[in-house]
Design a protein that fits this description.
alpha/beta; Rossmann fold; Histone, subunit A; 2 domains; 13 helices; 52% helix
Protein backbone atom coordinates (compact mmCIF):
# COMPACT_ATOMS: atom_id res chain seq x y z
CA UNK A 1 0.00 0.00 0.00
CA UNK A 2 1.73 3.15 -1.22
CA UNK A 3 -0.84 5.65 0.03
CA UNK A 4 -0.94 6.99 3.59
CA UNK A 5 -3.71 8.58 5.65
CA UNK A 6 -2.19 10.79 8.35
CA UNK A 7 -4.59 11.42 11.25
CA UNK A 8 -4.12 14.43 13.54
CA UNK A 9 -6.18 13.95 16.69
CA UNK A 10 -6.47 15.60 20.08
CA UNK A 11 -8.68 17.58 22.45
CA UNK A 12 -10.52 20.76 21.65
CA UNK A 13 -8.44 23.96 21.48
CA UNK A 14 -5.10 22.12 21.48
CA UNK A 15 -4.13 23.53 18.07
CA UNK A 16 -4.95 20.72 15.64
CA UNK A 17 -5.96 22.98 12.75
CA UNK A 18 -2.65 24.83 12.53
CA UNK A 19 -0.57 21.66 12.86
CA UNK A 20 -2.65 19.93 10.16
CA UNK A 21 -2.20 22.88 7.80
CA UNK A 22 1.56 22.97 8.33
CA UNK A 23 1.89 19.23 7.75
CA UNK A 24 -0.41 19.29 4.70
CA UNK A 25 1.66 22.09 3.16
CA UNK A 26 4.86 20.16 3.91
CA UNK A 27 3.38 17.01 2.35
CA UNK A 28 1.80 19.04 -0.49
CA UNK A 29 -1.59 17.48 0.05
CA UNK A 30 -5.15 18.25 1.23
CA UNK A 31 -7.10 18.00 4.49
CA UNK A 32 -10.26 16.07 5.42
CA UNK A 33 -12.04 16.95 8.67
CA UNK A 34 -13.37 14.26 11.00
CA UNK A 35 -14.68 16.83 13.47
CA UNK A 36 -18.41 16.14 13.62
CA UNK A 37 -19.24 19.69 14.79
CA UNK A 38 -17.48 21.35 11.87
CA UNK A 39 -19.64 19.64 9.24
CA UNK A 40 -22.42 22.22 9.71
CA UNK A 41 -22.11 25.51 7.85
CA UNK A 42 -24.29 27.44 10.32
CA UNK A 43 -21.96 26.68 13.26
CA UNK A 44 -19.41 29.26 12.15
CA UNK A 45 -18.22 30.28 15.61
CA UNK A 46 -19.11 27.69 18.25
CA UNK A 47 -17.71 24.72 16.32
CA UNK A 48 -14.37 26.53 15.72
CA UNK A 49 -14.05 25.52 12.05
CA UNK A 50 -10.98 26.61 10.10
CA UNK A 51 -11.22 30.23 8.98
CA UNK A 52 -11.48 31.24 5.30
CA UNK A 53 -7.83 32.33 5.56
CA UNK A 54 -6.81 28.90 6.85
CA UNK A 55 -8.82 27.11 4.17
CA UNK A 56 -7.11 29.31 1.56
CA UNK A 57 -3.74 27.96 2.70
CA UNK A 58 -4.67 24.29 2.16
CA UNK A 59 -7.80 22.74 0.56
CA UNK A 60 -10.18 21.38 3.23
CA UNK A 61 -12.96 18.83 2.76
CA UNK A 62 -16.04 17.96 4.86
CA UNK A 63 -16.04 21.38 6.54
CA UNK A 64 -19.29 23.35 6.38
CA UNK A 65 -20.73 21.00 3.76
CA UNK A 66 -23.96 20.30 5.69
CA UNK A 67 -26.83 22.32 7.13
CA UNK A 68 -28.27 21.89 10.63
CA UNK A 69 -31.42 20.76 8.77
CA UNK A 70 -29.61 17.69 7.42
CA UNK A 71 -29.75 14.24 8.95
CA UNK A 72 -26.23 12.87 8.79
CA UNK A 73 -25.07 9.57 10.23
CA UNK A 74 -21.68 8.11 10.99
CA UNK A 75 -22.25 5.81 8.03
CA UNK A 76 -22.80 8.81 5.77
CA UNK A 77 -19.54 10.26 7.00
CA UNK A 78 -17.63 7.03 6.34
CA UNK A 79 -18.88 6.90 2.73
CA UNK A 80 -18.10 10.56 2.02
CA UNK A 81 -14.70 10.52 3.68
CA UNK A 82 -13.58 7.38 1.84
CA UNK A 83 -14.65 8.93 -1.49
CA UNK A 84 -12.66 12.08 -0.69
CA UNK A 85 -9.65 10.00 0.33
CA UNK A 86 -9.80 8.11 -2.95
CA UNK A 87 -9.95 11.40 -4.88
CA UNK A 88 -6.95 12.82 -3.02
CA UNK A 89 -4.95 9.62 -3.46
CA UNK A 90 -5.34 9.87 -7.24
CA UNK A 91 -2.93 12.82 -7.23
CA UNK A 92 -1.21 12.64 -3.83
CA UNK A 93 0.58 9.91 -1.86
CA UNK A 94 -0.71 11.19 1.47
CA UNK A 95 -3.84 12.82 2.90
CA UNK A 96 -4.13 14.64 6.22
CA UNK A 97 -7.22 14.03 8.35
CA UNK A 98 -7.85 16.20 11.40
CA UNK A 99 -10.47 16.29 14.13
CA UNK A 100 -11.49 15.68 17.68
CA UNK A 101 -14.08 12.93 17.22
CA UNK A 102 -12.55 9.63 18.28
CA UNK A 103 -15.55 7.71 16.99
CA UNK A 104 -15.27 9.18 13.51
CA UNK A 105 -11.55 8.49 13.40
CA UNK A 106 -12.14 4.89 14.42
CA UNK A 107 -14.82 4.48 11.76
CA UNK A 108 -12.31 5.50 9.10
CA UNK A 109 -9.46 3.39 10.43
CA UNK A 110 -11.33 0.28 11.62
CA UNK A 111 -14.75 0.37 9.98
CA UNK A 112 -18.06 -0.30 11.72
CA UNK A 113 -18.66 -2.94 14.35
CA UNK A 114 -21.49 -5.33 13.58
CA UNK A 115 -24.45 -4.37 15.75
CA UNK A 116 -27.62 -6.35 16.45
CA UNK A 117 -30.91 -5.30 14.87
CA UNK A 118 -33.05 -3.26 17.25
CA UNK A 119 -36.81 -3.84 17.73
CA UNK A 120 -38.76 -0.73 16.80
CA UNK A 121 -40.62 -0.68 20.11
CA UNK A 122 -37.35 -0.27 22.04
CA UNK A 123 -36.28 2.61 19.82
CA UNK A 124 -39.67 4.30 20.19
CA UNK A 125 -39.64 3.82 23.97
CA UNK A 126 -36.22 5.41 24.35
CA UNK A 127 -37.17 8.40 22.23
CA UNK A 128 -40.35 8.79 24.28
CA UNK A 129 -38.29 8.73 27.49
CA UNK A 130 -35.98 11.36 26.05
CA UNK A 131 -38.99 13.63 25.44
CA UNK A 132 -40.58 12.95 28.83
CA UNK A 133 -37.65 12.89 31.25
CA UNK A 134 -34.74 14.38 29.32
CA UNK A 135 -31.26 13.15 28.48
CA UNK A 136 -29.89 13.06 32.02
CA UNK A 137 -31.88 10.01 33.15
CA UNK A 138 -30.82 8.08 30.02
CA UNK A 139 -27.20 9.05 30.61
CA UNK A 140 -27.44 7.79 34.20
CA UNK A 141 -28.77 4.45 32.94
CA UNK A 142 -25.93 4.15 30.43
CA UNK A 143 -23.35 4.92 33.12
CA UNK A 144 -24.83 2.19 35.33
CA UNK A 145 -25.04 -0.45 32.60
CA UNK A 146 -21.94 0.34 30.51
CA UNK A 147 -19.51 2.64 32.38
CA UNK A 148 -16.71 1.93 29.87
CA UNK A 149 -18.67 3.35 26.96
CA UNK A 150 -20.11 6.14 29.10
CA UNK A 151 -16.57 7.35 29.83
CA UNK A 152 -15.88 7.67 26.10
CA UNK A 153 -19.15 8.91 24.62
CA UNK A 154 -20.21 12.53 24.17
CA UNK A 155 -22.54 12.57 27.16
CA UNK A 156 -24.56 15.45 25.70
CA UNK A 157 -25.35 13.68 22.43
CA UNK A 158 -28.79 12.03 22.68
CA UNK A 159 -28.30 10.05 19.47
CA UNK A 160 -25.19 8.30 20.82
CA UNK A 161 -26.72 7.68 24.27
CA UNK A 162 -29.91 6.23 22.79
CA UNK A 163 -28.01 4.06 20.30
CA UNK A 164 -26.04 2.45 23.12
CA UNK A 165 -29.13 1.90 25.28
CA UNK A 166 -30.97 0.33 22.33
CA UNK A 167 -28.32 -2.37 22.16
CA UNK A 168 -28.17 -2.82 25.93
CA UNK A 169 -31.92 -3.14 26.41
CA UNK A 170 -32.45 -5.40 23.40
CA UNK A 171 -29.58 -7.81 24.12
CA UNK A 172 -28.88 -7.56 27.85
CA UNK A 173 -25.20 -7.05 27.02
CA UNK A 174 -23.08 -3.92 27.11
CA UNK A 175 -22.68 -1.76 24.05
CA UNK A 176 -18.93 -2.04 24.58
CA UNK A 177 -19.07 -5.82 24.03
CA UNK A 178 -20.27 -5.25 20.45
CA UNK A 179 -17.51 -2.77 19.67
CA UNK A 180 -14.60 -5.17 19.74
CA UNK A 181 -15.03 -6.93 16.43
CA UNK A 182 -12.59 -7.44 13.57
CA UNK A 183 -11.09 -4.35 11.98
CA UNK A 184 -11.83 -3.48 8.38
CA UNK A 185 -8.64 -3.61 6.33
CA UNK A 186 -8.27 -0.29 4.54
CA UNK A 187 -6.32 -0.08 1.24
CA UNK A 188 -3.95 2.56 2.63
CA UNK A 189 -1.42 2.98 5.42
CA UNK A 190 -2.54 4.69 8.61
CA UNK A 191 -0.41 6.92 10.85
CA UNK A 192 -1.96 8.56 13.91
CA UNK A 193 -0.54 11.68 15.54
CA UNK A 194 -1.96 12.87 18.86
CA UNK A 195 -1.56 16.43 20.13
CA UNK A 196 -1.63 17.30 23.82
CA UNK A 197 -0.45 19.94 26.27
CA UNK A 198 -0.03 20.08 30.06
CA UNK A 199 -3.52 20.27 31.53
CA UNK A 200 -3.26 23.85 32.94
CA UNK A 201 -2.05 25.14 29.56
CA UNK A 202 -4.79 23.29 27.67
CA UNK A 203 -7.49 24.57 30.02
CA UNK A 204 -6.17 28.13 29.68
CA UNK A 205 -6.41 27.82 25.89
CA UNK A 206 -9.97 26.49 26.18
CA UNK A 207 -11.03 29.40 28.41
CA UNK A 208 -9.41 31.92 26.07
CA UNK A 209 -11.08 30.35 23.04
CA UNK A 210 -14.51 30.65 24.67
CA UNK A 211 -13.88 34.33 25.41
CA UNK A 212 -12.87 34.90 21.78
CA UNK A 213 -15.99 33.07 20.56
CA UNK A 214 -18.18 35.35 22.64
CA UNK A 215 -16.35 38.40 21.28
CA UNK A 216 -16.87 37.04 17.74
CA UNK A 217 -20.64 36.84 18.21
CA UNK A 218 -21.46 33.36 19.50
CA UNK A 219 -24.44 34.71 21.44
CA UNK A 220 -26.01 36.09 18.26
CA UNK A 221 -25.17 32.91 16.31
CA UNK A 222 -27.06 30.77 18.83
CA UNK A 223 -29.96 33.24 18.89
CA UNK A 224 -30.38 32.87 15.13
CA UNK A 225 -30.33 29.08 15.46
CA UNK A 226 -32.91 28.80 18.25
CA UNK A 227 -35.61 27.51 15.85
CA UNK A 228 -33.38 24.45 15.27
CA UNK A 229 -32.57 23.82 18.92
CA UNK A 230 -33.81 20.20 18.81
CA UNK A 231 -31.46 19.20 16.00
CA UNK A 232 -28.61 16.85 16.96
CA UNK A 233 -26.10 19.35 15.63
CA UNK A 234 -27.23 21.82 18.32
CA UNK A 235 -26.84 19.37 21.21
CA UNK A 236 -23.25 20.38 21.80
CA UNK A 237 -21.07 22.48 24.05
CA UNK A 238 -21.39 26.20 23.44
CA UNK A 239 -24.89 25.96 22.02
CA UNK A 240 -26.86 24.16 24.70
CA UNK A 241 -25.57 26.50 27.45
CA UNK A 242 -26.59 29.62 25.53
CA UNK A 243 -29.96 28.05 24.77
CA UNK A 244 -30.41 27.75 28.54
CA UNK A 245 -29.55 31.45 28.78
CA UNK A 246 -32.13 32.40 26.14
CA UNK A 247 -34.68 30.23 27.96
CA UNK A 248 -34.08 32.28 31.10
CA UNK A 249 -32.70 29.33 33.07
CA UNK A 250 -29.29 30.94 33.70
CA UNK A 251 -27.74 34.37 33.21
CA UNK A 252 -25.11 35.14 30.56
CA UNK A 253 -22.00 35.08 32.84
CA UNK A 254 -23.12 31.68 34.14
CA UNK A 255 -23.66 30.41 30.60
CA UNK A 256 -20.14 31.48 29.63
CA UNK A 257 -18.64 29.75 32.65
CA UNK A 258 -20.67 26.62 31.88
CA UNK A 259 -19.33 26.62 28.31
CA UNK A 260 -15.78 26.78 29.66
CA UNK A 261 -16.41 24.07 32.24
CA UNK A 262 -18.15 21.74 29.78
CA UNK A 263 -15.46 22.35 27.16
CA UNK A 264 -12.81 21.29 29.69
CA UNK A 265 -14.84 18.18 30.50
CA UNK A 266 -15.22 17.45 26.80
CA UNK A 267 -11.45 17.75 26.31
CA UNK A 268 -10.92 15.29 29.16
CA UNK A 269 -13.29 12.78 27.53
CA UNK A 270 -11.58 13.22 24.18
CA UNK A 271 -8.20 12.47 25.76
CA UNK A 272 -9.64 9.43 27.55
CA UNK A 273 -10.78 8.06 24.18
CA UNK A 274 -7.58 8.84 22.30
CA UNK A 275 -5.31 7.52 25.06
CA UNK A 276 -6.91 4.11 24.57
CA UNK A 277 -5.64 4.09 20.98
CA UNK A 278 -2.28 2.37 21.49
CA UNK A 279 -0.99 3.29 18.02
CA UNK A 280 -1.24 7.07 18.46
CA UNK A 281 2.13 8.86 18.60
CA UNK A 282 1.92 11.87 20.92
CA UNK A 283 3.49 15.31 20.43
CA UNK A 284 3.04 18.91 21.53
CA UNK A 285 1.35 21.14 18.94
CA UNK A 286 4.54 23.21 19.05
CA UNK A 287 6.66 20.30 17.79
CA UNK A 288 5.81 20.35 14.09
CA UNK A 289 9.44 19.86 13.02
CA UNK A 290 9.71 16.90 15.38
CA UNK A 291 6.53 15.42 13.87
CA UNK A 292 7.99 15.90 10.38
CA UNK A 293 11.14 14.05 11.45
CA UNK A 294 9.04 11.22 12.85
CA UNK A 295 7.07 11.00 9.60
CA UNK A 296 10.26 10.87 7.53
CA UNK A 297 11.33 7.84 9.58
CA UNK A 298 7.92 6.23 9.06
CA UNK A 299 7.95 6.76 5.30
CA UNK A 300 11.51 5.47 4.99
CA UNK A 301 10.81 2.38 7.06
Amino acid sequence: MSKTALFIAGPTAVGKTEVAIQLAKWLQTEIISFDSRQFYKELKIGAAPPSPEEIARVPHHLVGHLSVHDDYSAGDFEKEALVKLDEIFKTHDTAVLVGGSGLYMRILTDGFDKMPSIPQEIRKQLNAELEETGLESLAIELNEKDPDYFAQVDQHNPQRIIRALEVIRSTGNTYTSFRQGEKTQRPFNIIKIGLDLPRPELYERINLRVDKMMEAGLEEEVKQLLPFREKNSMQTVGYKELIQYFDGEIDLPTAIEEIKKNSRRYAKRQLTWFRRESDIHWFSPFEVEKIEGFLVEQFIS
